[in-house]
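Figure caption, in words: inputs first, then the predicted bound structure.
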Amino acid sequence: MPTIIDCDPGIDDAIALAMALAGNELDVRAITTSYGNVSVSQTTTNAIRVLDWLGSDLPVHAGASRSLLGPAIDAAVYHGATGLEAPDLGKPSRLPDSTAAIRFLIDALSSGGDKITIVALGPLTNIALALRIEPSIADGIERIVIMGGSTDYGNDSPAAEFNFLADPHAAQIVLDSGLPISLFGLNVTHRLIATPERLGRLRAIGTSTSRITADMIAYFEAVYVQRYGFAGAALHDPCTIAYLLEPSMFDMRPMRVDVDTSSGLSLGRAVYDVWGIAGAAPNAEVAVDVDPEAFFDLLDARIAAYPSRSS
Ligand code: RIB
Ligand code: CA
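Bound structure (alpha-D-ribofuranose present):
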């Protein structure tokens, strides 16, 4: 399953990368980065710091610094000013690849090789731009697995989820691409709460990787406890990796999904035509349910796969 992960690390992005790279099932070929949680300069630095932590030398290609037309927003309140505030993963060991993300995506998806699964964990600006600049890359894409949207409430506005609010137009471009899309919104990710008991199980693995993962989640939980009254952090981005590894833990339903790109109260809101009322054919399979215990069992298993390291 050749895969490219587009992300904006970000603590939950980091955990998604850890789950993905714990084995070879996903055959991750490269990481592309975007603005989002914090600036693209910082998310790119963070992506390299995370790969250093995981012992990976995958190439990292920096992408868009702003959305197409959307509001300039960030999520530093959740992730810290650096986007990966704690624990300290140290300085990045290397610079990003000299090829920018959009150029890399177009080259990689036009190579005529294996079709690539795209995992999108941040605003969809990079994917949208690549599709607009070179539409034929669609022939090189197996499917797109997206963390974004919500069939119920928003998180960065009352109506909209952060990734879709950050670039509503890019989200609509991707949803209109005709490509197979699997969509994971807050309606399932807010069911994956890293409770103290689940954090305890993670720490009990007893390796440096499990300790650092638990410390990342512990930092991430502040807003979830204070604003949402949750019993811990919600793990959004790792949903996509869990789906690729163990799809049976999710209940997926095909439906037409669009994004409100008008200005105002519901800018960035994903709109799900569950009953096909508008008559448009489904353009995505949407996660409508998840087994949280199966998810956290998988998280533990993936993190436990990393050998203990002195750090
Ligand atoms: O709304 C959650 C999404 O926004 C996640 O991808 C998180 O990393 C932030 O980017
Ligand atoms: Ca993200």
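Residues 201 and 300 are 8 Å apart (CA to CA).
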